[in-house]
Amino acid sequence: MLDKYLPKEISEALEKFDYIQEIRLRIHHKISILDKTGNYTLQTMVTRALIERVFAALCNHSVYALKEEIQNGFITIPGGHRAGICGRCVVENGRISHIADITSINIRVAREVKDCALAVFENIRQMPDNLVVISPPNCGKTTFLRDLARLFSNHGSKVSIADERGEIAPVLKGAQPFDLGENTDVLQFCPKIQGMMMLLRTMNPDIIVTDEIGSEADGLAIAEIMKSGVHILTSFHGYDVKDFKMRFKEWSAFKYAVILNRRKEVAAWISLR
Amino acid sequence: MDFFKIIGGGMVVLSTSLAGIEMNGKMKRSLRLTEGFMKGLSFLMDDMQFSMAYLEGSLQKSAAFSDGASNFFLKTAEDLRDGSDLSEIWTRHLEEMPDLHVQAKQILTELGEILGKTDAETQKNRIVSCLEGLENVRQQQAELQKTKGVLYQKCGIAAGILITILLF
Known about the structure:
The complex is a heterodimer of chains A (273) and B (168).
Chain A: H1 8-14, E1 20-26, E2 30-35, E3 38-45, H2 48-58, H3 67-71, E4 74-77, E5 81-92, E6 95-108, H4 118-124, E7 131-135, H5 141-154, E8 159-163, E9 184-188, H6 192-202, E10 207-210, H7 216-226, E11 231-237, H8 241-247, E12 256-260, E13 266-271
Parallel strand pairs in A: 7-11, 7-12, 8-9, 8-10, 10-11
Antiparallel strand pairs in A: 1-2, 1-6, 2-3, 4-5, 5-6, 12-13
Helix pairs in contact in A: 6-7
Chain B: H1 2-51, H2 55-63, H3 70-80, H4 86-95, H5 102-114, H6 120-167
């Protein structure tokens, strides 16, 4: 699946891994792989030429078309995978203009895990309400949200996804690699709040799904959307409910909280009110 | 014997004439190629700026506007799909065009080294610079074709006749 972006000898070396989660390239270091069984190192040394070639391929030879993503430090690639990039930030007027002289790339592999949210869905589908998925990074929040959206969509709810980073519902040339259900609409790469309000006004959704809330503005937007009777499914970077309540002012807008652990399992799901 | 001399003479005249026609034809093809690249790159630049689409798609669309150079754009777009290095693909396909003017090839090769690797503004500036260089080449080619094209054809015929006379 990532053959297009990596030289042949590296792609071939990756075939022996069953469940790659991350591929890290750091200049003047060997390539490291995070698989579900642990960390591994390939024999290939990352040179400047190699990292530039991989970066160009990740950008589809179109750096000019990915300016905003690169400014945010990552590129979303077909399949919903995300490539984080590090290098020299070029700052103009206090904002990152672009990242030059790339020195590291971290490719995070996205996966669809059908029915990972089934147990939670079965418990709430008769009484849907606002739900937040809480976990530290890399614990499967986006995968869980995607599955929950699919389940509600197939259950008959009109689901709209405000996919700011193109990770929940990546679209490539009009095709969707993941199953999002029968009644799902996706607005991709639109700023989150703007996206949610547009979907609310135009798509008449029962449920709006978005990823990674955290700011006060997010909270105000959610409060506004709730007035329309639309439910929100979203995620939050945090460790537990206490963390969520402490850092997100509008926490009481949510009825349900799902906590994921580092094994990407549901550690707990809680009624907040 | 005279019959074979006439046949031989005719063949000499024909071959030198065809050589002259071919040289004229090559100049015309080279000029068309340069113009085709200019049209294609103009469209490419506009498409990159306006739609911010990936290069592969823009190259495919540019092929429709590139006249004699359309194959180049199509093949480059196709080869990009397997993740190969753009500048390698670009240069390889330029080398497959023997009728392309040497200077035009050089200018296009330099563009291929930067295409897709920088921000939109830099891409535009580099393509504009490339187009200016190609325009200079086009003007030289057009002038040469106008002054020398017919001359080569006539020289071809004349050389054939002269050789025939000398031989026989």
